Recover the amino acids of this structure.
C-alpha cells in the first residue's frame, strides 16, 4: 500500500494554526466554520475519508468548532 505524504492529523494541525493566524490578523475565527460549510455544500462527494489526506468536511468543521475557543484568545476586534 502506498504511503500518503501528509496525514489528516497534519491537515488538522494546519487548520488550528490557520485559525490562530487569522485571529492575529484581526479576522474572527468563527468565520472559518461558515467558510467550511460553504465548501462542503459546493463539493462533490469523492473518496472515503480513510483514503484521503484531508479530513471529511464534517470532521473538519467539528474539529474547527472545538478549536475556536483557543483561537479566540488571539482575536482582538
Amino acid at each position: 500500500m502506498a504511503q500518503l505524504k501528509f496525514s489528516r492529523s497534519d491537515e488538522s494541525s494546519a487548520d488550528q494554526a490557520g485559525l490562530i493566524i487569522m485571529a492575529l490578523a484581526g479576522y474572527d475565527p468563527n468565520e472559518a466554520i461558515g467558510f467550511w460549510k460553504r465548501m462542503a455544500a459546493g463539493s462533490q462527494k469523492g473518496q472515503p475519508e480513510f483514503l484521503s489526506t484531508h479530513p471529511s468536511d464534517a470532521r473538519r468543521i467539528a474539529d474547527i468548532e472545538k478549536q475556536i475557543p483557543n483561537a479566540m484568545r488571539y482575536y482582538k476586534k
About this structure: The chain has a mean pLDDT of 85. Residues 8-42+52-72 form one domain. The radius of gyration is 14 Å.
